[in-house]
Write a structure and sequence with these properties.
two-stranded antiparallel sheet, alpha/beta, about 475 residues, 16 helices, Amidase signature (AS) enzymes
Length: about 475
């Protein structure tokens, strides 16, 4: 295979790769070997994989290549059969390390597969390894002590975001075809914004956390990072669904998400905002991303209206619940970064936590009521463009938290309400880094926002943005 052909395949959509496999134009083994070679070349610069599972990935790819050879009608295989993927290092994969971004846990090996991993394996995807996360998934940049900082393939001086920064960096660099992530306050959507990808945070209860339980009142969701909306819909179909004992769940959609996004939308009522209180107006390029997107949506025939949006009352209770994730992790404080030790002190006692949960639920009811008048909201994903690696390193924890809140402000509300949200790229900023917007839907309305995102993908043509190797 020529180097240009290999690069084109490495950056091809996951569904395209799967079709090439079914057409016997490339084998799962060839794809895995291609990605492992790219990981060997680029991961030392990017720090996006904490663990590369080369031996098990090759063994799995050989088995699937043999299965293809023995399958008479390969078109009956699952939609992403044989496609290489990666799992974020907050989720357990049997016989692979699970560190949660804590250097003291680097040698810890998982002895089970989480439910989302079991579904990915059952669908025939091949796991290349574990991607980097911020320590305990708490921060929107991926710079865990004891690990190399994870860098943005578009510009190595910048972060790919967090906490799913390793997944986004790997995907944007062509080191896997599609990736798993999770989002407890923008941890999928932020990295998608930073790296020019599609990032899907599903509705609460859409994707199981089995066999473990929820520990932050359902603010976190397993989801998807992808190059295209269709790829994201395909993997969301795979990972969705109730697993026995889940504390909350949604019924399966009437038709698969991958099928649903081909349907015609009715005229929608779209709300948008470029300012979010208490921060005020987003950076001009983030404002422009929203305005351009809304202009395209209006040209499609939908109704649009500007709204005012204030998340001030949500910040305090959400911060309490978010910080409780550190203390509930079971990791000793002396193994944590100074920032996470400080965050742990914010969590308070059990009564304060329960009060915060009640406050968050009451505020969430008010936020969801916006959707009595709107089908979808269009907001900035983040309030300003991507930050540099280490940009917040010399601030006090209090200053760092304030800067984090002012950057990620548009995201956590939808973790609080449990509504679906999808981040899409819309252009490039003055530093040559991607920017984008997020679409938020009514509860359990993934199909609708995926369909709208797919139509915007065509209109904006963000699949034509330059790849890593063209920069």
């Amino acid at each position: 295979m020529r180097s240009d052909q290999a690069t084109n395949i490495a950056f091809a959509p996951a569904l395209t790769q799967a079709q090439l496999i079914r057409d016997r134009q490339i084998s799962p083994l060839e794809l895995v070997e291609l990605y492992l070679a790219r990981i060997e070349t680029y991961n030392p610069q990017l720090g996006c994989f904490y663990h590369v599972a080369a031996e098990s990935a090759i063994a799995d790819a050989k088995q699937k290549t043999e299965q293809i050879a023995q399958t008479r009608d390969t078109q009956t295989l699952p939609p992403l059969f044989g496609v290489p993927t990666a799992i974020k290092d907050l989720n357990a994969v049997a016989r692979m390390p699970i560190s949660y971004g804590v250097s003291a846990l680097k040698e810890q090996i998982a002895d089970y597969d989480e439910g989302v991993v079991s579904k990915i394996k059952a669908a025939g995807l091949i796991i290349l390894g574990k991607t980097a996360t911020s320590q305990l998934g708490s921060l929107p940049y991926t710079e865990s002590p004891g690990f190399s900082p994870t860098r943005n393939p578009w510009n190595l001086d910048y972060t790919p975001g967090g906490s799913s920064g390793g997944a986004a960096s790997a995907l944007a660099a062509g080191l896997c075809a599609i990736a798993h992530g999770n989002d407890g306050g923008g941890s999928i959507r932020g990295p998608a914004f930073c790296c020019g990808l599609v990032g899907i945070k599903p509705s609460r209860g859409r994707v199981s956390y089995a066999p473990v339980g929820d520990f932050q009142n359902g603010i976190s969701a397993n989801g998807v990072l992808a190059r295209t909306v269709k790829d994201g819909a395909a993997l969301l179909d795979i990972i969705s669904g109730y697993i026995t004992g889940d504390p909350y769940w949604l019924p399966d959609p009437e038709i698969p998400f991958l099928t649903a996004i081909e349907q015609t939308l009715p005229q929608l009522s779209i709300g948008f905002a470029t300012a979010i209180a208490p921060a005020g107006e987003a950076h001009p390029i983030c404002q422009e991303s929203v305005k351009q997107t809304v202009s395209i949506i209006e040209a499609m025939g939908h109704r649009v209206a500007e709204i005012s949006f204030d998340v001030t009352p949500l910040i305090a209770p959400f911060t309490t619940i978010w910080s409780a994730g550190i203390t509930s992790s079971g990791v000793t404080l002396d193994a944590l970064s100074p920032m996470n030790r400080w965050i742990a002190e914010l969590s308070g006692h059990a009564g304060e936590y329960l009060q915060a949960v009640q406050q968050m639920q009451l505020i969430s009811r008010q936020i969801v009521s916006l959707f009595d008048n709107y089908d979808v909201l269009v907001l900035p994903t983040y309030m300003h463009p991507t930050i540099r690696v280490g940009e917040f390193a010399n601030f006090t924890p209090e200053e760092t938290l304030a800067k984090i809140i002012s950057w990620i402000l548009p995201c956590p509300a939808w973790n609080a309400t449990g509504q679906p949200a999808i981040a899409i790229p819309t252009g490039i900023d003055h530093n040559g880094l991607p920017v984008g917007v997020q679409l938020i839907g009514k509860p359990a309305s993934e199909s609708l926002i995926l369909t709208l995102a797919s139509q915007l993908e065509t209109a904006i043509n963000f699949s034509s943005f330059p790849t890593l190797e063209e920069n």
